[in-house]
From TrEMBL:
Pfam families: SpecificRecomb
Protein name from the UniProt record: Adventurous gliding motility protein AgmG
Methyltransferase found in the keyword field: no
Region ranges (Disordered): 685-737
Alphabetic keyword roster: Membrane, Transmembrane, Transmembrane helix
Residues that span the membrane, as ranges: 397-415, 454-478, 504-524, 563-587, 618-645
InterPro entries per UniProt: Site-sp_rcmbase
Amino acid sequence: MEQLLAHYSSSPETNQRLRELHALLTSARPQAPLATRMAWMEELAGWLQAPGATPPRRGRLAPVESAGSARLRLLLEVLGESSAWSKAVRGVFASVLSETSMLRLLTEPGLSAGRGLMEDALTRLGQRLLPLAPDERDLAPLVWNLLPGEKGQAWLDELSEEHVEALCSLLGAESFAPLKAAVEDAVVILAARVSARGLASDVLSRLAPASLELSPFVHLPRACEALRMAVRAGAESSTVESRRRACAEAIAGCRAATRQVLCHMDEHAVCFDLVYRLEQLGHTIDRLESLLWLLAPEAPRSLPRAATRLLSSLLQAHTRERGVVELFRSGVRSIARRIFEHTGKVGRHYITTTQDEYHRMVSAAAGGGLLTAGTAALKLAITFAALPLFFEGLAAATNYAVCFLLIQLLGFALATKQPSMTAAALAASMDVKAGDKEMHSLVRQLACITRSQLAAVFGNLGAVVTTVTLLGGVLQAIRGRPLLEVHEAEYVVRSLHPFKSATLLYAAFTGVLLWCSSVFGGWLENWVHYRRLPEALARHHGLRAWLGEARAQRLGRAIAHHACGLGANVSLGLLLGMTPAVCRFFGLPLDVRHVTLSAGTLAFAGVTLGAERLLEPAFLWAVTGILLVGVFNLTVSFSLGLSAAVHARGLAPVGFLRLACAVLTGGIRSLSDFILPPRPPLLPAQPPSSRYSVRSAERTRTLSGKHGAGHEGHELPALLAREPAPPDGSGSTATGH
């Protein structure tokens, strides 16, 4: 020990570190029980990864290196000067590797053994709650203890390549003989897994039709086995190289097929479990490629560094597989992208860009408000009927769902259903690196969305208030009394006060429910197309016998066309109707506030209270509450839809301040585009009749051909009468050059 201290610069800290190393090396016993040798390796790994400076040799400058490399360098220097310690350490490592199995270490971390998503999730959850029984003959737990978590991976990544090669040379090639055998076995297992997953029926059905013999998933196990046998037989380098190229081609084909299946799902429909299995397939191919490189390396000297990179990837995979949430991340991202892409396509139909589209939106919204008036009347009847809690919620949900479905089938519009869909459409035009030009385009689209949304709100509210007023007067004339009693009307007014009730909280919560319904609608549309439900209905023998072949096909097309709306409307009805009942069942004072339905109920209350009470502060506050309910409904739903769509597409959200500055820099005229209907477009600008005359952008023209054959356009005589004659005095109009 004193001789060891004499070789290095002395300080209390470095002396303590050297004493710890001396104690470790003198306690290495290759003949000790396996558990004792494993514990010694854990102590050595802990010493190597401990923080603190490492002393250089006396008379030498300390090299610039990481802490991990410094300790490994010190270990190698000490072992290089003591053959007894080197032999003992080599014996411990060789005996542990020969008496344990590395197969699970190479084939399981981060990889699923053919199971599905839910089974893997339950397995991981069970492992977190109940730890696995220890297996002394398995090398994987020892590796996780030697290099714990991210700390161990960081230490491994910092090691100098020179030191890693020196350590492998010191341990000797015979120590790593079990590793080579384990790599061969792991290659066989992983190639079989890749082949089995790639030949699954739901994968093959999404690939281009081809002979199974040409499938890369069939060729891969054969190519890997040929390479393994060539390496084992010690074949010539040219033979090994050709086998290696065959494996590389098969792996490239498997990756191309995987991308083709993912593209097919992006275009048609996404399966949550299939996305997970394809991700696992990609990880398995990556692991197999790394092992093939170890089995038949191009340069034997690079083997130590390649083994280090493989071990680092195994540590990363082990850390990743411990989390349950990680299982669902890729699948959620894929299906969310599919859902929001479809809702974005639907949302484009709610964006008006011309006056005709704007007027049609107002008319459709008026029709939606007309139907909502009846729904509001039934809602009040159900609310004050004192039904049992479950049946009250069920009746309210049925009332809402039927109303929303009728609005869709009749081609009407409901303002609160639009924000989450128009937000997805807006996200489709966002660019993480958008410049000023793209920002102005984004602002114009935002102006169209806002203008269209306000048109739908005004149409809904105007129609529902007018219809409820007329309907309330008719009911009062028929029944001799209004629909609501005075105390019921006063309760409605009080419940809509924006500050003396939880109306605004309920309105924000309703915005969340509106967004959730759009997500469910997109999911149902994806599920219908993934299960190919329209084709199944069109070819169903019972339906074809009952409805006829043509009607069965029309039914399938209708299901495909209305699946999103059907799911969104039914789910929204259930959420709005059942959520208050379920919350009251659990003692939660939570309710919903839908702007159109709330406006209808307030209008019924106004009919009961009479015109003289409409200007009272309580009623005016309720009207203010309705306006704020609309703002909260639309803002929350739009914000959630935009954020979810942006994250699903992998885009960076555009900053609010940047977007606001782009809106304000457009001036008052651009701000008016957010509220007022679009102006009629000007007639297209015309080229001048000659090089000396310039036409007005508002004038129509007569086009003439290259050889003077004129094509008459739509002429305005008054404008043509004021048109100057060409300088040459001819009456014809020639095209300018």
